[in-house]
Amino acid sequence: MSEYTAQILWQRDEQERFLDQKYSRAHIWHFDGGASVAASSSPSIVPLPYSVEGNVDPEEAFIASLSSCHMLFFLQIAAKNKLIVDKYVDQAIGLMEKDKNGKVSMTKVTLRPHIKFSGNKQPDLVMLENIHHQAHEQCFIANSVKTQVVTEIIY
Fold first, then answer.
1. CA 49 → CA 28, 54, 59, distances in Å?
2. How far apart are CA 109 and CA 63, in angstroms?
3. Which pLDDT tens digit goes with each residue over 22-59?
4. First to last CA, the chain
5. What are phi and psi of 47, to 5 degrees?
6. What does pTM read for this prediction?
7. pLDDT per residue as tens digits for the range 83-103
8. 1-56 and 58-151 have identical folds
9. DSSP string of 69-82?
10. Domain at 58-151, CATH class
11. What whole-number distance in Å separates Cα of residue 153 and Cα of residue 112?
């Protein structure tokens, strides 16, 4: 068993407005590894200036977590298969909409990884599909959510 921590810090500070909901949504995520990330609500959900443009929002972080977890397992499996990965870029997309129960949720995340390999051994499409399938099956984050996670392989 492993345990992970994150501290989420928001403070009203000098903001006089709160009850009218016209307060800043800016906050900080502090992670157990030492990183701190400026966060806010998405400007598409809470309009500016109450959201902060340029900060990470929870929806983006959710998509990034799925993509990052998938990538880390992909790299591990590729290395075990003696494939040399030079670059891995994923333009992941999340779809937030009402689910079958009428609740707004992230219903689908599409991973769209583009990978560059070097060396004599180059994967064919079947091998890539197999590695992506294994990465998806092993991804802790994908195994923890009800969101449909799809991988579109760019070959």
1. 17, 12, 18
2. 7
3. 899 999 999 999 999 999 999 999 998 889 988 999 99
4. 37
5. -60, 155
6. 0.92
7. 999 999 999 999 999 999 999
8. yes
9. HHHHHHHHHHHHTT
10. alpha beta
11. 6
